[in-house]
Structure formats: structure tokens, C-alpha cells
Task: structure prediction
Amino acid sequence: SLVSTLAHEVRNPLTVIRGAIKTVLGLGERIDAETKVELLSGADHQAARLERLAADLLDLARLERGRLELSLREVKLREAVEAALSFADDKGRYDVRIDPSITVRADPGRLEQIVVNLAANALRYGEPPFLAEAGLTNGEVRLALRDHGPGVPPEAAAKLFEPFRSEQSRESVGLGLAIVKALSEAHGGTVSYEANLPRGACFSVRLPVAGPLRPAS
Result:
């Protein structure tokens, strides 16, 4: 169940953190500086995982309750995608093919979160070449992130955007794609998956083209 999965996601990092602290406290002066740094660095890494989990859970809770406020503005999509990829893809593996003139109406910080989560997912599970591209269709911008890895098995595709999906890695708490879905919908858009034929995965986000905000109906 979701609750038991969440319990494991919290317990596992805590076990590492407490183990490191107990070792440092228990051995005291008998532990050399290099080992101490290694233990504390591992604990800090696991604490960062817990911090990310807490932030993601809070975002999902706000999104589900409609309480996440978006600061919508005109955003140049290529600049936003390149800035987000500088965080997710520090090795520059993505080929960005987006017309600089394309703009979307989005919250810059949350758009960055969408791109970072999609890129991190592709880099974790996919294979190069990696491509980010965009186009205009019927008043919407379609941003697609493609890779050429094994893709997603058909039986798993339907559950891709659910929290804590089963194929999460040891470094993933399984919330990234769920947050992408919720954030895309909060912007009035959508996210979808399709096979990147002949091989790979393609995640597409559709967002409103930048323009005057529509009055609430």
C-alpha cells in the first residue's frame, strides 16, 4: 500500500543516518577523520533524500487540495528548459531543439520542476541520445522529452504517473512523475507518455501558449 511504501522510504534513510551517528558517537576518538567524514557524508546524503521527500509530499498535498499558488507569467520556453537542464543534466547530454520565440504561460519555478523531474527520470532509466523539443498545436505548446532507452513496458505505462510506482530506483522516492502530472494540470495542461519509436520513451507536456489570462468562467 502507499502508506507502507512511504514508511519504508522514511525508515531506510533514517536507518543509515542513525547508524552513522551511533558509530561516530560510540567510537569517538578511535575513529579516524577520513572514516568520520565518509559516515557523516552518507548520513547527509540520506537526510537530503528525506528533505526532498518531505518537499514533494507537501507539494502533492497542496496540489490535491488546490492550494498551491502559481505565479503565472510569460516564459520563454527554450531559456526555461535550458536552465532546468543545467540542474538535471550537468553533463550536457540533452539536445535542445526549441524555437527561441516559443513562449508559454507558466510559473517559472514550477515549470523548472516539471522539466527537472522529467529529465531526471529519463537520465535514470533511459539511454542517449536525449532530446528536448517543442511545437505549437491548436493554441497549446507541446514540450516533449525523448530518450532512446528500453522505454516503458505496456503494463507499467498506465501507472507511470501514480505516486510510489513499483519501478522506482533506490535513489527515487517515486513521486517525480506524479508531481509532473499534478503541476501540468495545475497549469491547465496535461502530461502523457508514449513510446518513442522505434526505441525509447517520450514524455509530452502540453501547456497554454503565453497570452492574456482568460477570465474565470
